[in-house]
Design brief:
Number of helices: 3
Helix content: under 10%
Radius of gyration: 21 Å
Number of strands: 21
Strand content: 35-45%
CATH superfamily of the largest domain: Galactose-binding domain-like
CATH architecture of the largest domain: Sandwich
Shape: elongated
Structural class: mainly beta
């Protein structure tokens, strides 16, 4: 595991050491992330923070999408699905398409009838599975290849776009990351419930089609910031004044952060805008409901 002591960490430590009434709280929490890139001391967070707790499941993947344009109605996939968010269903949706249009659209017109409406002031995420290189090659090479829309109807929505370079074969965590739904690009005027959910895939050719298993969707979810952090194990930080070392220790239980290939760890305090003092990356480890993770970080102040 590679770790960096961040510039914000130095600010917190200096402030708490030399100021009679410190401006910052002590560190007491940790968070985890995926797809972590190279760490720098100037970084203020992990690249992709993921929820530790379940948050809100807007759609669990059981519900059929209505296809339009180049998309056909989705079908259940009970072989390839994504666990997580406390869900026990074993169903995802095959995003099936036809050869009539480069834009393939799948819609759930009323999330509340089958799940929970989107929450404006929370981020969103979902999973998209791409079977192999042949399926991935059908996504538009240059420009928007995938667009997710959440709105009050199909003409008034918030959206986020993704290019081919954002995607890979296997499971893709499609997310607004730390950006809330209401802060995404707005088309028209979203009024009332955010109950319409659309997935659009743009292919290179109208004749590019997807059959069952080529592209799979599962688990639209949201979360609060508090769902992304957890308090250290009792007794930590543990300070050894003889060796000038501090040990930090945190745990993920079998019901937390499931479904992710975790590769990032952060330490932070409890300020209104938390300061991340330490960041770590490591070889990705898949977290399932049969796993418990223990994180240990040793800081030396020699």
């Amino acid at each position: 595991m590679t770790s960096v002591y961040t510039e914000d960490g130095k600010i917190v430590d200096n402030n708490r050491t030399y100021k009679a009434v410190p401006d910052y709280t002590t560190v007491s929490k940790f968070g985890v992330g995926i797809k972590q890139g190279t760490l720098l001391a100037a970084d203020t967070d992990l690249d992709y923070v993921v929820p530790i707790n379940n948050g809100t499941v807007n759609d669990n993947g059981d519900n059929t999408f209505t296809g339009s344009s180049g998309g056909d109605n989705s079908t259940d996939n009970t072989t390839t699905f994504k666990p997580g968010a406390g869900e026990t269903d074993n169903t995802a949706q095959n995003l099936i398409s036809n050869n009539t249009n480069v834009t393939k659209i799948w819609t759930i017109a009323d999330l509340s009838s089958s799940g929970i409406n989107a929450i404006a002031d929370q981020p969103f995420a979902m999973w998209i599975y791409i079977k192999d290189a042949a399926a991935l090659a059908k996504f538009l090479i240059a420009g928007t290849a995938l667009e997710i829309k959440l709105g009050s109807d199909s003409s008034n929505y918030y959206s986020k776009t993704f290019e081919l370079t954002d995607l890979a074969t296997g499971w893709n965590w499609i997310t607004s990351n730390t950006v809330n739904v209401e802060d995404l690009t707005e088309t028209g005027t979203v009024v009332g419930d955010i109950d319409t959910f659309l997935i659009e895939i743009i292919t290179n050719n109208a004749t590019d089609v997807f059959i069952a298993g080529d592209v799979i969707y599962d688990l639209l979810r949201q979360w609060e910031v508090t769902d992304t952090v957890k308090t250290f194990i009792a007794g930590f930080p543990a300070i050894d004044e003889g060796t000038f070392k501090v040990k930090i220790k945190g745990s993920l239980t079998s019901v937390q952060a499931n479904g992710f290939d975790l590769s990032g760890f952060k330490v932070l305090n409890t300020d209104t805008v938390p300061k991340v003092t330490d960041l770590s990356d490591y070889t990705a480890e898949s977290k399932s409901d049969t796993d418990e993770f223990i994180y240990e970080l040793d800081n030396s102040f020699l």
